[in-house]
Amino acid sequence: MQLKVKQPAFKVAFRRNRSASTGFTLMEILMAVVIFAMVSCGVIYGYIQANRMAEFSAMSLAAQAYASQGAEQVRAADWRPRDYPQTNGYGTMDELTNGFHSVNTYILDVPVKGSPASNDFGFFVTNYVSITNAIPGGNPPLRMIRSDAVWTFYMTGKVYTNTIILLRAPDQ
Question: I want to staple 93 with a disulfide (CB 3.0 to 4.6 A). Which of 22, 34, 83, 105 is the partner?
């Protein structure tokens, strides 16, 4: 024989209304959509910033390579101040004349879509190379080679300069 236990009245009422109370309210759905939108915007903004920093880094490293190239080309020049007779200019003992100044414009070596020779290609770098006496009348004579690569970051329009300075003694 089974004993029937009478259920309390609040449990019976709760079971009857349970199907009517399942689901989300309009306010809960709106809050979930707002939170999802904010998180999505943060992820997209982070991706865009990472892409911008990668582009800037690529262009800066390419400009640094051109500054280094200009400095190394001048450093490779012949400079023998102790030879006789002393002459200046290309093909002589002193190819590094004091006050030498060179300006060259190149296309930055950054990977892009399309042809770099097209007219709308805006990744240019200008390399300024100058030679001065580091210590006038110094012994040993030292010359300072300065190479500046000036370039513009296309996303912001700001102009940046990468600089390399070398000191060179004769016969090196």
Answer: 83
